[in-house]
Amino acid sequence: MRKALIAANWKMYKTAAQAKEYVKAFLPLVTGHDRDEIVLCPSDTSLYTVIPAVTGSNVAVGGQNMHFADEGAYTGETSPVMLKTIGVTHVIIGHSERRQYFNETDETVNKKLITALRHKLVPIVCIGEVLAEREAGQTNDVLRRQTTLAFAGIKPEEAQPIVIAYEPVWAIGTGKTATPEIAAEAHLTIRSEIARLLGREVADNMRILYGGSVKPDNATALLSQPEIDGALVGGASLDPQSFAKIVKY
Ligand code: 13P
User: Fold this and answer.
1) Does residue 176 have its Cβ closer than 6 Å to ligand 1?
2) Core-most of 43, 80, 99, 167, by most CB within 10 Å?
3) How far apart are CA 200 and CA 204, in angstroms?
4) Res 117: pLDDT
5) Which atom of ligand 1 is closest in space to residue 126's alpha carbon?
6) Using a 6 Å cutoff on CB, does residue 213 contact ligand 1?
7) Which residue lies with its CA nearest to atom 5 of ligand 1?
8) Mean per-residue pLDDT for 35-42?
């Protein structure tokens, strides 16, 4: 049985003060909810506010990105050690916005994945096709390629903590959600590729989340698909009531 993981990706929203207010409103809404793992991913400037605010609760905290080096002359970057030592437990890797605007490649995703595992951060690795690829019938090839390149050099016995987020780029922030059937089909493709790379057992145990315009009113249909093991939520996670409704779909 795969425990579902529901993660909020706040992207570049919320000051530290706003993040604190959010947690105050959100925690009582999900008290005692242990069916799913709940993760908030604020921007780095709010980590220091959010981590103490959730300590002792059923909510964990993730970073939205990290560098693959432990330290170094990389102005503006955050290292896995910096995240880990303040209590961050999860980290999003390879989000499509980072691939699109910040030069993230399948190669840097792979390096970050290896580093995250080394530091015992739970990696949430994002993959997904753009609209032109879907329309050209290339979705399965894109998903297989991104999966293969992300997992290069990773052994089956190391892979257990990895979480994948299937985020079709055309569904992010657009209000166009993949239908549960489209999402489930993509998840099956990803899972079969993981089975080919790392074996059936690893594939069967790996959680594959869906992301892209998940809202309270479509969460149940998506999350009740057996292939969908949780959600990575952007816009609808910015409001505590709305995100709590998704968590409790
Ligand atoms: P939206 O939920 O706003 O479409 O964003 C999805 C996403 O990118 C989560 O990482």
Assistant:
1) no
2) 167
3) 6
4) 98
5) 10
6) yes
7) 234
8) 97
> CA 14: distance to chain centroid?
19
For β-strands 59-63 and 90-93, DSSP reports them as parallel
Give the predicted TM-score (pTM) of the model.
0.97
Average pLDDT on 222-229 reads 95
Q: Is 172 in the pocket of ligand 1 (CB under 6 A)?
A: yes
Q: Which residues are known to be catalytic?
A: 95, 167
Instruction: Report whether 213 contacts 219 (CB < 8 A).
Output: no
Sorted by sequence, the CB contacts under 8 Å of residue 6 that are 6+ apart come out as 36, 37, 38, 39, 230, 231, 233, 246, 247
Average pLDDT over residues 191-197: 98
Ligand 1: atom nearest CA of 175 is 4
The string over 55-72, giving b where at least 16 C-beta atoms fall within 10 Å of a residue's C-beta and e elsewhere, is eeeebbbbbbbbbbeeee
Pocket test for ligand 1, best of 5, 9, 125 (most atoms within 8 A of CB): 9
Task: Find where tokens 């809404």 sit.
Answer: 29
Provide the pLDDT for residue 175: 86
3-class SS at 72?
Answer: coil
- The torsion angles phi and psi of 62, rounded to 5 degrees, stand at -125, 155
Q: Is 235 in the pocket of ligand 1 (CB under 6 A)?
A: yes
All structural domains of the chain, each given as residue ranges with its CATH number in brackets, are 5-247 (3.20.20.70)
Q: Which pLDDT value is given to residue 176?
A: 86
